[in-house]
Write a structure and sequence with these properties.
Elements: H1 3-17, H2 46-50
Length: about 80
C-alpha cells in the first residue's frame, strides 16, 4: 500500500467512527408520538416503541455440531423447470 492510500484509509475510518450515537434517542420538540395502536387505550412511551419484539430479535441457538450429519430429504428442493 502506498502512503497516500494509508492516509486516505485512516481518514475514512476516523470519519466513520465519528458517526456513532452519542445520546439517547428522544422525540423532536413539539412533535407527538404515534397514536395508540388499534384496540389499545394506552399510548406507548418512546422507550416502549424502541423495544424489539421477540420475532424481530429471536434468541440465538448456541448448539454446535459435533459431527457432520446427513441432510433430511427436502420436498421443496426442486430442480429448475
Amino acid at each position: 500500500m502506498t502512503k497516500r492510500s494509508i492516509i486516505t484509509l485512516s481518514l475514512a475510518m476516523l470519519a466513520l467512527g465519528a458517526c456513532g450515537q452519542r445520546a439517547d434517542i428522544e422525540p423532536l420538540a413539539n412533535a407527538s408520538l404515534p397514536t395508540a395502536p388499534f384496540g389499545s387505550e394506552v399510548k406507548p412511551e418512546a422507550e416502549q416503541l424502541l423495544e424489539l419484539e421477540t420475532l424481530a430479535a429471536p434468541e440465538r441457538s448456541v448448539e454446535l455440531r459435533r459431527r457432520s450429519e446427513e441432510r433430511e430429504d427436502d420436498p421443496f428442493d426442486l430442480p429448475p423447470e
